[in-house]
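[Automated response] Your request has been received and processed.

Submitted sequence:
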Amino acid sequence: MVDTPTADSPAEPDITHVNPAKEATWFGHPRQLARLFTTEMWERFGYYGMRALLTLYLTQHFMFGDREATGIYGGFTALVYLTPLVGGYLADQYLGSKRAVKFGAIIMSLGYAILCFGGPTATPYATIDGQRYEVSIEKQADKEVRYVVDGSKKLEIKGNDDGSVDLLNAGAVERKVEKGKFESNADRSPLYVMVLLIALSMVSVGNGFFKPNISTMVGELYEQGDRRRDSGFTIFYMGINTGSLFSQILCPWLAVAYGWSWGFGLAAIGMMISWALIQFNGGKLNGYGEPPAGPKVNSQQWIIYAAALCVVPLFYLLYVNLMHSAAPAEGSGFLGYVASLPLMGKLLFGSFLLGVPAILIWSFVAGSRTEFQMMLAAMVLIVFNVVFWTLFEQAGSSLTLFADRNTDLSVFGLFTITAGQTQFFNAAFIVLLAPFMSIMWGALAKRGLEPSIPVKFGIALIGVAAGFLLLVWGAAYADAGFKVSIWWLAGLYFIHSAAELCISPVGLSMITKLSIARIVGLMMGVWFLSISVAQYVAGVIAQFASVDTVGGQVTNLKVSLDVYVKVFTTISIAAIILGVLLLLLSWPLKYWMHGVK
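Generated structure:
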Protein backbone atom coordinates (compact mmCIF):
# COMPACT_ATOMS: atom_id res chain seq x y z
CA MET A 1 0.00 0.00 0.00
CA VAL A 2 1.27 3.46 -0.90
CA ASP A 3 0.73 6.22 1.65
CA THR A 4 -0.93 9.30 0.19
CA PRO A 5 0.03 12.61 1.82
CA THR A 6 -2.76 14.69 3.27
CA ALA A 7 -3.03 18.21 4.60
CA ASP A 8 -2.41 16.86 8.12
CA SER A 9 0.55 14.68 7.21
CA PRO A 10 3.46 16.31 5.37
CA ALA A 11 4.69 14.51 2.23
CA GLU A 12 7.76 12.31 2.47
CA PRO A 13 10.72 13.93 0.74
CA ASP A 14 11.18 12.78 -2.86
CA ILE A 15 14.57 11.08 -3.12
CA THR A 16 14.04 9.41 -6.48
CA HIS A 17 16.21 12.05 -8.14
CA VAL A 18 19.30 11.13 -6.11
CA ASN A 19 22.07 9.84 -8.35
CA PRO A 20 22.80 6.26 -7.18
CA ALA A 21 26.34 6.62 -8.52
CA LYS A 22 27.07 8.78 -5.46
CA GLU A 23 26.68 5.80 -3.15
CA ALA A 24 29.98 4.16 -4.15
CA THR A 25 32.96 5.31 -6.11
CA TRP A 26 35.72 3.90 -8.30
CA PHE A 27 38.87 6.00 -7.97
CA GLY A 28 36.62 8.86 -6.90
CA HIS A 29 34.19 8.34 -9.78
CA PRO A 30 30.85 6.52 -10.06
CA ARG A 31 31.40 2.75 -9.94
CA GLN A 32 29.52 2.31 -13.22
CA LEU A 33 32.44 4.04 -14.94
CA ALA A 34 34.51 0.88 -14.39
CA ARG A 35 32.11 -1.29 -16.44
CA LEU A 36 31.73 1.30 -19.17
CA PHE A 37 35.53 1.71 -19.21
CA THR A 38 35.95 -2.05 -19.70
CA THR A 39 33.21 -2.25 -22.32
CA GLU A 40 34.83 0.49 -24.36
CA MET A 41 38.24 -1.10 -23.86
CA TRP A 42 37.16 -4.38 -25.49
CA GLU A 43 35.23 -2.63 -28.25
CA ARG A 44 38.31 -0.58 -29.08
CA PHE A 45 40.39 -3.76 -28.86
CA GLY A 46 38.37 -5.08 -31.77
CA TYR A 47 38.20 -1.87 -33.78
CA TYR A 48 41.84 -0.81 -33.52
CA GLY A 49 43.07 -4.35 -34.03
CA MET A 50 41.16 -4.44 -37.30
CA ARG A 51 42.25 -0.89 -38.21
CA ALA A 52 45.93 -1.73 -37.69
CA LEU A 53 45.58 -4.36 -40.41
CA LEU A 54 43.23 -2.71 -42.89
CA THR A 55 45.51 -0.55 -45.05
CA LEU A 56 48.18 -3.25 -45.18
CA TYR A 57 45.50 -5.84 -45.95
CA LEU A 58 44.25 -3.74 -48.86
CA THR A 59 47.74 -3.15 -50.30
CA GLN A 60 49.33 -6.54 -49.61
CA HIS A 61 46.47 -9.04 -49.85
CA PHE A 62 44.15 -7.39 -52.38
CA MET A 63 47.10 -5.43 -53.87
CA PHE A 64 45.19 -2.22 -54.38
CA GLY A 65 47.33 0.77 -55.28
CA ASP A 66 47.93 3.51 -52.72
CA ARG A 67 45.20 5.75 -54.11
CA GLU A 68 42.55 3.01 -54.01
CA ALA A 69 43.64 1.64 -50.62
CA THR A 70 43.78 4.98 -48.84
CA GLY A 71 40.50 5.98 -50.51
CA ILE A 72 38.76 2.84 -49.23
CA TYR A 73 40.33 3.30 -45.80
CA GLY A 74 39.28 6.96 -45.63
CA GLY A 75 35.76 6.11 -46.80
CA PHE A 76 35.45 3.33 -44.23
CA THR A 77 36.61 5.42 -41.28
CA ALA A 78 34.41 8.27 -42.49
CA LEU A 79 31.31 6.05 -42.43
CA VAL A 80 32.34 4.71 -39.03
CA TYR A 81 32.05 8.23 -37.66
CA LEU A 82 29.09 9.34 -39.80
CA THR A 83 26.66 6.70 -38.59
CA PRO A 84 26.74 7.91 -34.94
CA LEU A 85 24.77 10.95 -36.11
CA VAL A 86 21.81 8.64 -36.73
CA GLY A 87 22.63 6.14 -33.98
CA GLY A 88 22.64 8.85 -31.32
CA TYR A 89 19.26 10.15 -32.45
CA LEU A 90 17.65 6.69 -32.54
CA ALA A 91 18.92 5.97 -29.03
CA ASP A 92 17.61 9.31 -27.73
CA GLN A 93 14.14 8.85 -29.21
CA TYR A 94 13.48 5.10 -29.26
CA LEU A 95 16.09 2.54 -28.18
CA GLY A 96 17.93 4.02 -25.25
CA SER A 97 21.73 3.98 -25.16
CA LYS A 98 22.05 0.53 -23.61
CA ARG A 99 20.10 -1.34 -26.30
CA ALA A 100 21.85 0.62 -29.04
CA VAL A 101 25.26 -0.31 -27.65
CA LYS A 102 24.40 -4.02 -27.53
CA PHE A 103 23.00 -4.10 -31.07
CA GLY A 104 26.01 -2.23 -32.43
CA ALA A 105 28.42 -4.64 -30.72
CA ILE A 106 26.78 -7.67 -32.35
CA ILE A 107 26.84 -6.17 -35.87
CA MET A 108 30.47 -5.06 -35.53
CA SER A 109 31.56 -8.47 -34.31
CA LEU A 110 29.92 -10.13 -37.31
CA GLY A 111 31.66 -7.65 -39.61
CA TYR A 112 35.08 -8.50 -38.18
CA ALA A 113 34.32 -12.22 -38.50
CA ILE A 114 33.36 -11.82 -42.18
CA LEU A 115 36.70 -10.07 -42.82
CA CYS A 116 38.32 -13.41 -42.01
CA PHE A 117 37.14 -14.70 -45.40
CA GLY A 118 39.49 -12.84 -47.73
CA GLY A 119 40.13 -15.59 -50.25
CA PRO A 120 43.44 -16.07 -52.11
CA THR A 121 45.98 -13.26 -52.44
CA ALA A 122 45.50 -11.14 -55.55
CA THR A 123 47.77 -11.85 -58.54
CA PRO A 124 49.76 -8.81 -59.70
CA TYR A 125 50.37 -7.86 -63.32
CA ALA A 126 51.80 -4.90 -65.23
CA THR A 127 50.68 -3.15 -68.39
CA ILE A 128 53.54 -1.68 -70.46
CA ASP A 129 52.69 0.31 -73.57
CA GLY A 130 49.28 -1.37 -73.64
CA GLN A 131 50.65 -4.93 -73.36
CA ARG A 132 49.99 -7.05 -70.28
CA TYR A 133 52.78 -8.91 -68.46
CA GLU A 134 52.60 -11.16 -65.45
CA VAL A 135 54.51 -10.07 -62.33
CA SER A 136 56.28 -12.57 -60.09
CA ILE A 137 57.33 -11.95 -56.48
CA GLU A 138 60.42 -13.52 -54.95
CA LYS A 139 61.70 -13.30 -51.40
CA GLN A 140 65.37 -12.29 -51.27
CA ALA A 141 67.11 -11.84 -47.92
CA ASP A 142 64.93 -9.39 -45.97
CA LYS A 143 62.92 -8.01 -48.90
CA GLU A 144 60.60 -9.00 -51.71
CA VAL A 145 61.63 -8.35 -55.32
CA ARG A 146 59.16 -7.87 -58.19
CA TYR A 147 59.86 -9.12 -61.70
CA VAL A 148 58.13 -8.64 -65.04
CA VAL A 149 57.83 -12.02 -66.77
CA ASP A 150 58.66 -11.53 -70.46
CA GLY A 151 58.59 -14.94 -72.08
CA SER A 152 61.43 -16.93 -70.57
CA LYS A 153 63.02 -13.84 -68.99
CA LYS A 154 62.37 -12.29 -65.61
CA LEU A 155 63.19 -8.58 -65.51
CA GLU A 156 63.56 -6.89 -62.15
CA ILE A 157 61.43 -3.75 -61.75
CA LYS A 158 63.24 -0.62 -60.55
CA GLY A 159 61.53 2.76 -60.26
CA ASN A 160 63.48 5.93 -60.99
CA ASP A 161 63.32 9.38 -59.42
CA ASP A 162 61.77 10.89 -62.56
CA GLY A 163 58.86 8.42 -62.60
CA SER A 164 60.28 6.18 -65.32
CA VAL A 165 60.86 2.45 -64.73
CA ASP A 166 63.95 0.37 -65.52
CA LEU A 167 63.60 -3.36 -66.24
CA LEU A 168 66.84 -5.04 -65.19
CA ASN A 169 68.36 -8.30 -66.43
CA ALA A 170 71.20 -9.49 -64.19
CA GLY A 171 71.57 -5.93 -62.88
CA ALA A 172 71.82 -4.27 -66.29
CA VAL A 173 69.07 -2.13 -67.80
CA GLU A 174 67.44 -4.12 -70.59
CA ARG A 175 64.47 -1.84 -71.11
CA LYS A 176 63.51 1.65 -69.97
CA VAL A 177 59.80 2.51 -69.67
CA GLU A 178 58.86 6.19 -69.79
CA LYS A 179 56.82 7.85 -67.05
CA GLY A 180 53.13 6.98 -67.34
CA LYS A 181 53.74 3.98 -69.65
CA PHE A 182 54.08 1.45 -66.80
CA GLU A 183 50.83 0.61 -65.00
CA SER A 184 50.53 -1.86 -62.13
CA ASN A 185 47.36 -3.71 -61.16
CA ALA A 186 46.22 -7.09 -59.87
CA ASP A 187 43.61 -9.75 -60.60
CA ARG A 188 41.22 -10.01 -57.64
CA SER A 189 38.23 -12.21 -57.04
CA PRO A 190 35.08 -10.05 -57.37
CA LEU A 191 33.41 -12.33 -54.81
CA TYR A 192 36.00 -11.67 -52.12
CA VAL A 193 36.10 -7.94 -52.85
CA MET A 194 32.32 -7.97 -52.31
CA VAL A 195 32.79 -9.87 -49.02
CA LEU A 196 35.37 -7.28 -47.93
CA LEU A 197 33.06 -4.35 -48.65
CA ILE A 198 30.05 -6.01 -46.97
CA ALA A 199 32.14 -6.60 -43.84
CA LEU A 200 33.29 -2.97 -43.78
CA SER A 201 29.67 -1.86 -44.26
CA MET A 202 28.55 -3.93 -41.26
CA VAL A 203 31.26 -2.47 -39.05
CA SER A 204 30.23 1.04 -40.14
CA VAL A 205 26.57 0.42 -39.25
CA GLY A 206 27.35 -1.28 -35.94
CA ASN A 207 29.70 1.48 -34.84
CA GLY A 208 26.93 4.03 -35.43
CA PHE A 209 24.86 2.40 -32.69
CA PHE A 210 27.77 1.76 -30.33
CA LYS A 211 30.07 4.76 -30.44
CA PRO A 212 27.89 7.78 -29.48
CA ASN A 213 25.80 5.93 -26.94
CA ILE A 214 28.53 4.45 -24.79
CA SER A 215 29.86 8.03 -24.42
CA THR A 216 26.36 9.29 -23.63
CA MET A 217 26.07 6.70 -20.83
CA VAL A 218 29.32 7.99 -19.33
CA GLY A 219 27.87 11.51 -19.37
CA GLU A 220 24.76 10.27 -17.50
CA LEU A 221 26.93 9.28 -14.54
CA TYR A 222 27.60 12.92 -13.65
CA GLU A 223 25.20 15.64 -12.63
CA GLN A 224 25.35 19.02 -14.34
CA GLY A 225 28.26 21.04 -12.97
CA ASP A 226 30.13 18.01 -11.56
CA ARG A 227 33.82 18.94 -11.95
CA ARG A 228 34.76 15.26 -12.11
CA ARG A 229 33.25 15.00 -15.59
CA ASP A 230 36.40 15.99 -17.56
CA SER A 231 38.67 13.66 -15.58
CA GLY A 232 36.02 10.92 -15.87
CA PHE A 233 36.04 11.19 -19.64
CA THR A 234 39.85 11.19 -19.59
CA ILE A 235 39.82 7.92 -17.61
CA PHE A 236 37.22 6.54 -20.04
CA TYR A 237 39.50 7.61 -22.90
CA MET A 238 42.34 5.68 -21.30
CA GLY A 239 40.13 2.60 -21.56
CA ILE A 240 39.91 3.15 -25.30
CA ASN A 241 43.66 3.15 -25.59
CA THR A 242 44.22 0.26 -23.19
CA GLY A 243 42.18 -1.90 -25.55
CA SER A 244 43.83 -0.57 -28.67
CA LEU A 245 47.31 -1.01 -27.15
CA PHE A 246 47.03 -4.77 -26.84
CA SER A 247 45.09 -5.32 -30.05
CA GLN A 248 47.61 -3.33 -32.11
CA ILE A 249 50.34 -5.63 -30.84
CA LEU A 250 48.47 -8.93 -31.06
CA CYS A 251 46.35 -8.61 -34.22
CA PRO A 252 49.24 -7.61 -36.54
CA TRP A 253 51.44 -10.31 -35.00
CA LEU A 254 48.79 -12.97 -35.62
CA ALA A 255 48.25 -11.68 -39.17
CA VAL A 256 51.98 -12.00 -40.00
CA ALA A 257 52.58 -15.25 -38.12
CA TYR A 258 49.42 -17.18 -39.04
CA GLY A 259 47.49 -15.19 -41.64
CA TRP A 260 45.09 -12.26 -41.94
CA SER A 261 42.10 -14.30 -40.72
CA TRP A 262 43.67 -14.81 -37.31
CA GLY A 263 44.13 -11.09 -36.79
CA PHE A 264 40.57 -10.24 -37.79
CA GLY A 265 39.23 -13.19 -35.78
CA LEU A 266 40.82 -11.87 -32.60
CA ALA A 267 39.18 -8.50 -33.26
CA ALA A 268 35.78 -10.25 -33.50
CA ILE A 269 36.35 -11.98 -30.15
CA GLY A 270 37.20 -8.69 -28.46
CA MET A 271 33.98 -7.17 -29.78
CA MET A 272 31.85 -10.02 -28.42
CA ILE A 273 33.39 -9.58 -24.96
CA SER A 274 32.32 -5.94 -25.12
CA TRP A 275 28.73 -7.00 -25.90
CA ALA A 276 28.73 -9.51 -23.00
CA LEU A 277 29.76 -6.85 -20.49
CA ILE A 278 26.62 -4.82 -21.23
CA GLN A 279 24.28 -7.77 -21.80
CA PHE A 280 25.23 -9.45 -18.51
CA ASN A 281 25.79 -6.43 -16.26
CA GLY A 282 24.10 -7.88 -13.18
CA GLY A 283 21.86 -4.85 -12.76
CA LYS A 284 24.83 -2.52 -12.30
CA LEU A 285 23.66 -0.34 -15.19
CA ASN A 286 19.98 -0.23 -14.25
CA GLY A 287 18.68 3.30 -14.70
CA TYR A 288 21.38 4.27 -17.20
CA GLY A 289 20.87 4.30 -20.95
CA GLU A 290 17.23 3.24 -20.64
CA PRO A 291 14.76 3.81 -23.52
CA PRO A 292 12.23 6.63 -23.26
CA ALA A 293 8.92 5.67 -21.68
CA GLY A 294 6.21 4.57 -24.12
CA PRO A 295 4.10 1.54 -25.00
CA LYS A 296 5.61 1.14 -28.50
CA VAL A 297 9.27 0.97 -27.52
CA ASN A 298 9.60 -2.82 -27.82
CA SER A 299 7.96 -3.01 -31.24
CA GLN A 300 9.89 0.00 -32.52
CA GLN A 301 13.26 -1.48 -31.64
CA TRP A 302 12.82 -4.44 -34.02
CA ILE A 303 11.80 -2.11 -36.85
CA ILE A 304 14.98 -0.08 -36.23
CA TYR A 305 17.16 -3.21 -36.17
CA ALA A 306 15.70 -4.41 -39.47
CA ALA A 307 16.13 -0.98 -41.07
CA ALA A 308 19.76 -0.88 -39.91
CA LEU A 309 20.48 -4.19 -41.65
CA CYS A 310 18.93 -2.78 -44.84
CA VAL A 311 21.50 0.03 -44.72
CA VAL A 312 24.36 -2.49 -45.16
CA PRO A 313 23.74 -3.01 -48.92
CA LEU A 314 23.40 0.77 -49.35
CA PHE A 315 26.82 1.27 -47.79
CA TYR A 316 28.17 -1.49 -50.01
CA LEU A 317 27.05 0.49 -53.06
CA LEU A 318 28.75 3.59 -51.66
CA TYR A 319 32.01 1.65 -51.41
CA VAL A 320 31.64 0.40 -54.98
CA ASN A 321 31.05 3.97 -56.17
CA LEU A 322 34.07 5.12 -54.16
CA MET A 323 36.32 2.48 -55.74
CA HIS A 324 35.29 3.42 -59.27
CA SER A 325 35.45 7.22 -58.88
CA ALA A 326 37.91 8.97 -61.16
CA ALA A 327 40.41 11.61 -60.11
CA PRO A 328 39.43 15.20 -61.05
CA ALA A 329 40.84 16.50 -64.29
CA GLU A 330 44.02 18.53 -63.90
CA GLY A 331 43.25 22.25 -63.70
CA SER A 332 39.52 21.69 -63.09
CA GLY A 333 39.60 23.83 -59.92
CA PHE A 334 37.48 23.59 -56.78
CA LEU A 335 34.16 23.13 -58.59
CA GLY A 336 35.65 20.40 -60.72
CA TYR A 337 36.94 18.69 -57.61
CA VAL A 338 33.53 18.83 -55.91
CA ALA A 339 31.82 17.53 -59.06
CA SER A 340 34.24 14.60 -59.19
CA LEU A 341 33.62 13.55 -55.59
CA PRO A 342 32.11 10.09 -55.19
CA LEU A 343 28.67 9.81 -53.63
CA MET A 344 30.22 9.24 -50.21
CA GLY A 345 32.13 12.51 -50.41
CA LYS A 346 29.05 14.45 -51.47
CA LEU A 347 27.03 12.81 -48.68
CA LEU A 348 29.56 13.68 -45.99
CA PHE A 349 30.21 17.26 -47.00
CA GLY A 350 26.51 17.85 -47.66
CA SER A 351 25.52 16.47 -44.24
CA PHE A 352 28.08 18.63 -42.46
CA LEU A 353 27.52 21.84 -44.41
CA LEU A 354 23.73 21.60 -44.06
CA GLY A 355 23.51 19.96 -40.62
CA VAL A 356 25.63 22.41 -38.64
CA PRO A 357 23.72 25.56 -39.73
CA ALA A 358 20.37 23.74 -39.37
CA ILE A 359 21.07 22.85 -35.74
CA LEU A 360 22.21 26.40 -35.02
CA ILE A 361 19.01 27.80 -36.55
CA TRP A 362 16.95 25.40 -34.45
CA SER A 363 18.93 26.42 -31.34
CA PHE A 364 18.28 30.09 -32.08
CA VAL A 365 14.53 29.48 -32.44
CA ALA A 366 13.95 26.89 -29.71
CA GLY A 367 16.60 27.84 -27.14
CA SER A 368 17.41 30.83 -25.01
CA ARG A 369 20.08 33.36 -25.93
CA THR A 370 22.53 31.65 -23.59
CA GLU A 371 21.78 28.20 -25.03
CA PHE A 372 22.26 29.51 -28.57
CA GLN A 373 25.63 31.05 -27.73
CA MET A 374 26.78 27.84 -26.07
CA MET A 375 25.72 25.85 -29.13
CA LEU A 376 27.49 28.36 -31.38
CA ALA A 377 30.72 27.91 -29.39
CA ALA A 378 30.34 24.14 -29.68
CA MET A 379 29.92 24.34 -33.47
CA VAL A 380 33.01 26.54 -33.92
CA LEU A 381 35.07 24.03 -31.96
CA ILE A 382 33.56 21.17 -33.96
CA VAL A 383 34.77 22.82 -37.19
CA PHE A 384 38.34 23.06 -35.85
CA ASN A 385 37.97 19.48 -34.68
CA VAL A 386 37.80 18.48 -38.36
CA VAL A 387 41.27 19.91 -38.94
CA PHE A 388 42.81 18.05 -36.00
CA TRP A 389 41.47 14.64 -36.94
CA THR A 390 42.31 15.11 -40.61
CA LEU A 391 45.97 15.24 -39.61
CA PHE A 392 45.86 12.84 -36.70
CA GLU A 393 44.16 10.09 -38.71
CA GLN A 394 47.07 9.77 -41.10
CA ALA A 395 48.09 7.12 -38.56
CA GLY A 396 46.08 4.35 -40.19
CA SER A 397 46.93 5.27 -43.78
CA SER A 398 49.97 7.30 -44.86
CA LEU A 399 51.87 6.84 -41.58
CA THR A 400 51.32 3.07 -41.66
CA LEU A 401 52.57 2.95 -45.24
CA PHE A 402 55.51 5.19 -44.23
CA ALA A 403 56.30 2.68 -41.47
CA ASP A 404 56.11 -0.20 -43.96
CA ARG A 405 58.31 1.45 -46.59
CA ASN A 406 60.57 4.11 -45.10
CA THR A 407 61.05 3.10 -41.48
CA ASP A 408 63.70 0.82 -39.99
CA LEU A 409 61.47 -1.26 -37.72
CA SER A 410 64.32 -2.76 -35.69
CA VAL A 411 64.09 -2.12 -31.94
CA PHE A 412 67.63 -1.68 -30.56
CA GLY A 413 68.72 -4.41 -32.97
CA LEU A 414 67.06 -7.00 -30.71
CA PHE A 415 63.88 -7.65 -32.67
CA THR A 416 61.76 -6.17 -35.43
CA ILE A 417 58.12 -5.16 -35.22
CA THR A 418 55.65 -5.00 -38.11
CA ALA A 419 54.35 -1.84 -39.75
CA GLY A 420 50.89 -2.47 -38.29
CA GLN A 421 52.30 -2.73 -34.78
CA THR A 422 53.75 0.80 -34.95
CA GLN A 423 50.24 2.10 -34.27
CA PHE A 424 50.54 0.74 -30.73
CA PHE A 425 52.83 3.69 -29.90
CA ASN A 426 49.83 6.01 -29.81
CA ALA A 427 47.85 3.74 -27.50
CA ALA A 428 50.84 3.14 -25.21
CA PHE A 429 51.54 6.85 -24.84
CA ILE A 430 47.86 7.59 -24.18
CA VAL A 431 47.80 5.03 -21.36
CA LEU A 432 50.97 6.53 -19.89
CA LEU A 433 49.98 10.17 -20.33
CA ALA A 434 46.25 10.02 -19.51
CA PRO A 435 46.64 9.76 -15.70
CA PHE A 436 49.25 12.55 -15.74
CA MET A 437 47.04 14.79 -17.89
CA SER A 438 44.01 14.07 -15.70
CA ILE A 439 45.94 15.01 -12.54
CA MET A 440 47.41 18.07 -14.25
CA TRP A 441 44.00 19.41 -15.38
CA GLY A 442 42.63 18.82 -11.90
CA ALA A 443 45.53 20.58 -10.20
CA LEU A 444 45.34 23.54 -12.57
CA ALA A 445 41.56 23.76 -12.09
CA LYS A 446 41.97 24.04 -8.31
CA ARG A 447 44.29 26.99 -8.83
CA GLY A 448 42.05 28.59 -11.46
CA LEU A 449 44.76 28.11 -14.11
CA GLU A 450 43.24 25.35 -16.25
CA PRO A 451 43.23 26.40 -19.94
CA SER A 452 39.82 26.90 -21.50
CA ILE A 453 38.50 24.33 -23.95
CA PRO A 454 39.28 26.53 -27.01
CA VAL A 455 42.88 26.95 -25.81
CA LYS A 456 43.22 23.19 -25.39
CA PHE A 457 41.94 22.73 -28.95
CA GLY A 458 44.47 25.28 -30.26
CA ILE A 459 47.32 23.55 -28.41
CA ALA A 460 46.22 20.23 -29.92
CA LEU A 461 46.36 21.61 -33.47
CA ILE A 462 49.85 23.02 -32.99
CA GLY A 463 50.92 19.77 -31.31
CA VAL A 464 49.84 17.52 -34.16
CA ALA A 465 51.78 19.76 -36.56
CA ALA A 466 54.85 19.52 -34.31
CA GLY A 467 54.69 15.72 -34.49
CA PHE A 468 54.85 15.72 -38.28
CA LEU A 469 57.66 18.28 -38.30
CA LEU A 470 59.65 16.02 -35.96
CA LEU A 471 59.31 13.16 -38.46
CA VAL A 472 60.31 15.49 -41.32
CA TRP A 473 63.40 16.40 -39.30
CA GLY A 474 64.15 12.72 -38.79
CA ALA A 475 63.89 12.10 -42.54
CA ALA A 476 67.04 14.18 -42.96
CA TYR A 477 68.88 11.40 -41.05
CA ALA A 478 67.53 8.51 -43.15
CA ASP A 479 70.02 5.71 -43.84
CA ALA A 480 71.39 4.65 -47.21
CA GLY A 481 68.23 2.62 -47.82
CA PHE A 482 66.08 5.76 -47.32
CA LYS A 483 64.70 4.45 -44.05
CA VAL A 484 64.19 6.49 -40.87
CA SER A 485 64.83 5.14 -37.38
CA ILE A 486 61.69 3.87 -35.67
CA TRP A 487 62.30 6.29 -32.80
CA TRP A 488 61.47 9.30 -34.98
CA LEU A 489 58.09 7.71 -35.67
CA ALA A 490 57.70 6.93 -31.96
CA GLY A 491 58.45 10.60 -31.22
CA LEU A 492 55.69 11.69 -33.60
CA TYR A 493 53.21 9.42 -31.84
CA PHE A 494 54.30 10.74 -28.42
CA ILE A 495 53.56 14.34 -29.45
CA HIS A 496 50.33 13.32 -31.21
CA SER A 497 49.17 11.41 -28.12
CA ALA A 498 49.66 14.45 -25.90
CA ALA A 499 47.79 16.57 -28.45
CA GLU A 500 45.00 13.99 -28.63
CA LEU A 501 44.51 14.17 -24.86
CA CYS A 502 44.02 17.93 -25.18
CA ILE A 503 41.10 17.55 -27.57
CA SER A 504 39.35 14.20 -27.67
CA PRO A 505 38.25 13.46 -24.08
CA VAL A 506 37.75 17.19 -23.55
CA GLY A 507 35.66 17.31 -26.73
CA LEU A 508 33.37 14.49 -25.63
CA SER A 509 32.84 16.19 -22.29
CA MET A 510 32.31 19.56 -24.00
CA ILE A 511 29.41 18.21 -26.08
CA THR A 512 27.58 16.91 -23.01
CA LYS A 513 28.04 20.29 -21.26
CA LEU A 514 27.36 22.78 -24.06
CA SER A 515 24.49 20.96 -25.77
CA ILE A 516 20.83 21.68 -25.13
CA ALA A 517 19.83 18.77 -22.92
CA ARG A 518 17.08 17.31 -25.12
CA ILE A 519 19.41 16.85 -28.12
CA VAL A 520 22.64 15.82 -26.40
CA GLY A 521 22.63 12.45 -28.22
CA LEU A 522 22.17 14.18 -31.56
CA MET A 523 25.00 16.61 -30.75
CA MET A 524 27.24 13.69 -29.85
CA GLY A 525 26.44 12.43 -33.32
CA VAL A 526 27.41 15.81 -34.83
CA TRP A 527 30.72 15.58 -32.97
CA PHE A 528 31.37 12.24 -34.63
CA LEU A 529 30.13 13.62 -37.95
CA SER A 530 32.92 16.20 -37.78
CA ILE A 531 35.38 13.37 -37.22
CA SER A 532 33.76 11.54 -40.15
CA VAL A 533 34.40 14.46 -42.48
CA ALA A 534 37.96 14.59 -41.14
CA GLN A 535 38.44 10.88 -41.84
CA TYR A 536 37.33 11.33 -45.43
CA VAL A 537 39.60 14.36 -45.92
CA ALA A 538 42.41 12.38 -44.25
CA GLY A 539 41.95 9.75 -46.95
CA VAL A 540 42.20 12.44 -49.61
CA ILE A 541 45.42 13.79 -48.07
CA ALA A 542 46.82 10.26 -47.89
CA GLN A 543 46.10 9.99 -51.62
CA PHE A 544 48.36 13.02 -52.17
CA ALA A 545 51.03 10.94 -50.44
CA SER A 546 50.39 8.04 -52.82
CA VAL A 547 53.38 6.35 -54.41
CA ASP A 548 53.37 4.04 -57.42
CA THR A 549 53.66 0.41 -56.37
CA VAL A 550 53.98 -2.97 -58.04
CA GLY A 551 52.27 -5.83 -56.24
CA GLY A 552 51.97 -3.66 -53.14
CA GLN A 553 55.63 -2.64 -53.04
CA VAL A 554 57.34 0.66 -53.83
CA THR A 555 60.10 0.29 -56.42
CA ASN A 556 62.04 3.42 -55.38
CA LEU A 557 62.20 4.25 -51.67
CA LYS A 558 63.81 7.64 -52.24
CA VAL A 559 60.75 8.76 -54.19
CA SER A 560 58.38 7.63 -51.46
CA LEU A 561 60.44 9.34 -48.74
CA ASP A 562 60.46 12.61 -50.68
CA VAL A 563 56.68 12.44 -51.24
CA TYR A 564 55.93 11.82 -47.56
CA VAL A 565 58.22 14.66 -46.42
CA LYS A 566 56.57 17.12 -48.82
CA VAL A 567 53.01 16.22 -47.75
CA PHE A 568 53.80 16.14 -44.02
CA THR A 569 55.49 19.55 -44.21
CA THR A 570 52.56 21.14 -46.03
CA ILE A 571 49.89 19.92 -43.63
CA SER A 572 52.01 20.94 -40.62
CA ILE A 573 52.23 24.55 -41.77
CA ALA A 574 48.46 24.66 -42.34
CA ALA A 575 47.78 23.23 -38.87
CA ILE A 576 50.03 25.75 -37.12
CA ILE A 577 48.29 28.68 -38.83
CA LEU A 578 44.83 27.36 -37.86
CA GLY A 579 45.97 26.57 -34.32
CA VAL A 580 47.15 30.12 -33.79
CA LEU A 581 43.86 31.41 -35.23
CA LEU A 582 41.90 29.34 -32.73
CA LEU A 583 44.00 30.66 -29.84
CA LEU A 584 43.08 34.18 -30.93
CA LEU A 585 39.39 33.19 -31.05
CA SER A 586 39.52 31.65 -27.58
CA TRP A 587 38.41 34.90 -25.86
CA PRO A 588 35.02 35.33 -27.62
CA LEU A 589 34.45 31.57 -27.48
CA LYS A 590 35.03 31.54 -23.73
CA TYR A 591 32.37 34.26 -23.34
CA TRP A 592 29.85 32.28 -25.43
CA MET A 593 30.46 29.21 -23.28
CA HIS A 594 29.08 30.99 -20.20
CA GLY A 595 31.32 29.43 -17.60
CA VAL A 596 31.50 25.91 -19.06
CA LYS A 597 34.98 24.53 -18.37
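Summary generated for your ticket: Residues 557-592 form the longest helix (36 residues). The chain has 17 helices and 15 strands.
If you did not submit this request, please reply to this message.
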